Amino acid sequence: MSAAPLLSVEDLRVRFQTEDGVVRAVDGVSFEVGRGEVLAIVGESGCGKSVTAMSLMGLTRGPNAEITGRAMLGGTELIAAHDSELRQVRGNEIAMIFQDPMSSLNPVHRVGAQIVEQIQAHGDISDSDAEARAVELLKAVGIPGAEERVDSYPHEFSGGMRQRAMIAMGLSVEPDLLIADEPTTALDVTIQAQIMRLLRKLNEDRGLATILITHDLGVVAQVADRILVMYAGEVVESGTLEQIFYDPQHPYTWGLLGSVMRLDRDRSDRLAQIKGQPPSLASPPEGCKFRPRCPHAFGKCTEHPGLENRAGDGAHLDRCWLDAERKRSVRTMESGDIGLEVA
Question: How far apart are CA 174 and CA 14, in angstroms?
Answer without folding.
Answer: 28
